[in-house]
Amino acid sequence: MEILRQIIDIIYPPRCGVCSSFMWEAPLKGNTSGLSICDSCLMGFHELSSPLCTMCGAPFLSEVLEDHPCEDCLRNRPAYAAAGAPYLYEGSLLEAIHHLKYHGKTCIAGSLGSLLGRFAQNWLGNESTDFLIIPVPLHPKKLRERGYNQSLLLARHTAKKLGTDLDCLSLRRSKNTAPQTGLGKKLRRKNVRNAFKLEDVNVIKGRNILLVDDVSTTGNTLNACSKALIKGGASKIYCITLARAAGF
User: CB neighbours of 23 closer than 8 A, spacing ≥ 6?
Assistant: First the structure.
C-alpha cells in the first residue's frame, strides 16, 4: 500500500496545505516528514525562544536570556501552572492557522497537531502521558456555524502523539462570547469571565489536565477554562497552544 501511495503521489503530486504549491520532492523522498506542509512554509514557522515568561509563556523583548515570570503573572497569577507554545503567531504559521480556523482547511490539522504533540512531548517530558487532554470548547452556536472545533482537531492529534486520553465533553462554553480579536487586555478578560462550565466533575476530579488551543494572546481564555477546571477539582493544569502572539 505504501508503494501504491507513492506512485499515486508521483502521478498526482500533493499540494502544500498552506500555500497550495506542489510538493514535487515529497513523493520521491517518501514524504518522510509525514507533513502536508511544504519546506518553504515550514521555514516560516518561527520558533519561540528564551527569554519567556515561566507562567504564561509570553516572549520578552529583552537581552536577558533567563526565563522569568512576567509582570502580569506576578500581579495576577494564572489558574494554570504553566502555558507553552512552539511558535510565534506570525508568518506562514499565522496563515496556516487562518486556513484551518476560518477557511475549512481541516486537512492540515494532522500536520499542525503532530507538531504540537511533538512540542508537548519535549515540554512535559516523562510526565506527558499522565495528563488528560481537553480542547478549549466552542459555543454550540459557533460550532454549528464553523462545523468543527479547530482546537479539538489539534487535541486529537496531540493525544495520539502522547498516547493519552482525550475528553471533549466535560468542559463546555456556556456563554457565546464575542471574538477576542481586536479587544484590549481588560475587555478580553471580561469577555471570557465565567464563560466555561463543567458538565461532569467526576471525569476531571483529581486529574492533571493538558488544555489545548490554537493560539494564545493574553492567555485569558486559557485562564478562564482553567478556573472552571480547578473549581471542578482538577489537580494541576498545563496549557499548550500551537502559537503565541507577541506584544500583549
Answer: 13, 14, 15, 16, 31, 36, 38
Report CA torsion sign: 178, 237, 46, 39.
Answer: negative
C-alpha 73/C-alpha 26 separation (Å) is 44
Question: In the chain, what are the domains?
Answer: 1-41 (no CATH), 44-244 (3.40.50)
Question: Grid cell 515568561 — which residue?
Answer: 53
Q: Are 27 and 9 in contact (CB under 8 A)?
A: yes
pLDDT digits (tens, 9 = 90+) for 61-72: 877 678 999 999
Q: Could you report the per-residue pLDDT of 174-199, keeping only the tens digit for each? A: 887 766 666 566 666 666 777 899 99
| Intra-chain end-to-end CA distance of the chain, in Å | 48
CA distance 162 to 121: 7
Per the listing, cell 493538558 goes with 210
Would you state the pLDDT for residue 32?
A: 40
Q: Rounded to two decimals, what is the model's pTM?
A: 0.88
Q: What is the mean pLDDT of the chain?
A: 86
What is the CB-side half-sphere exposure of residue 69 using CA atoms within 13 A? 11
Question: How is 39-90 classified by DSSP, letter by letter?
Answer: HHHHTT--B--SSB-TTT-PBP-SS--S----HHHHHS--SSSEEE-SEES-
